[in-house]
Prior knowledge:
The chain is an alpha/beta fold. It has helices spanning about 5-20, 40-55, 85-100, 130-140, 150-155, 185-200, 215-230, 245-250, 265-275, 295-305, 325-330, 335-340, 355-360, 370-380, 390-400; strands spanning about 30, 35, 65-70, 125, 160, 175-180, 205-210, 235, 260-265, 285-290, 315-320, 345, 365-370, 385-390. The radius of gyration is 21 Å and the shape is globular.
Amino acid sequence: MDGIYGEAVQRSLELLIAVGESYDAETLLPVTSAHVLACNPPTAGKGGTLFYEEMSGSGGKFIIPTTTNPACLDPWAWQEMGFDPGLYHAQMELTSVIAEMEAFLCHTCAPYLVGHAPRIGEHAAWGESSAVVYVNSVLGARTNREGTPSALAAGLTGRTPAYGYHLDKNRHGKLIVNVTAGLKGTTDYSTLGYFVGKIAQDKVPILNGIQPSVSQQELIALGAGLASSGSVALYHAVGVTPEAPTAEIAAGSNKIGPSDTFEFCRKDLQETEESLCSIEAEASDLVILGCPHVNINQIRTYLGAFSGRKVKDHIDAWILVQSGIKRYAKDLGYLDILESCGVRLVSNMCPSAAPVNYYRQKGYGGFATDSAKMCYLLSGAKQISAYYGKLESIVDAVSW
Ligand code: F3S
């Protein structure tokens, strides 16, 4: 606070203490990792960009492993994809400012897939709602939903205020959802997340009936759905996630009565899925799969679905990945096969961070996605018509 570690540390501590005071935090906690969001010019805006520049310019260096959320374009394929050179240069400038602070420039919403994964009980300071819910729920580490300034300040100081999900008392479940729908595949989990997020809002839900065989990518999809229709930062899946060996343990001292107990049945699954659709799958000229960025297993699932088929000429089909996972897919031969089917693996980018003008200039009339979060963001904020549904129905509609 007295400036001996430089202005960036001093300002960061001022900010963290102000946040802590507003939440009645009693102390600052040491954190082992941070993940900063708003790592692209459209999301950061002028204010965010200036903040990064000032912290970097005043000598700020991350003292704990700190990763970055997606860019607004694929830094390798932006030209082929028709992005504006001005946007590319602005992205590269911001990226280099963040690089000066010694971040790990993975530009992904799933940095835990490329080695950045706090362990159970560790305190962390992460932004990006889908990653926050994964860290809290699946890894059992502890983070609040940080904004860009507080995550950045935590990365520069290794500290965060002790409030919210860092404290045991706030990690217990407050409502129960009995899942009877018989879920299969990431879209079903995404739909469940979207349904429960609406009910839970910022409360911690306990989910009964998630099968122990649920895959990593299905849990990722579930968390992203929960964090998009609501602001859920932590859920418990009984018998699956680390703090929920039983529903009673997950609830702690909270008494959950009938008014806080819900069901998610087959009908809810179907109705929720349909509620997100504004067009038929056949009306899409853009396909966006892989929100949040996918693991190698999910790429193999996509490969299986597109294998032997060809995406129709007027349609662009994207799978969103971190560049290291794309490299892995290349080594395994998956990338070449997917490309021969007309599917592009798009690296380090979030389509919802791309400016709306990009979609207008490309003339996309509607898009199809298997992610409730992507559907919600692009159809809501960018007003692009959406088909939301299972992978098989999308593949059938967009390829020969
Ligand atoms: Fe990731 Fe963007 Fe989806 S940040 S979770 S690809 S909306």
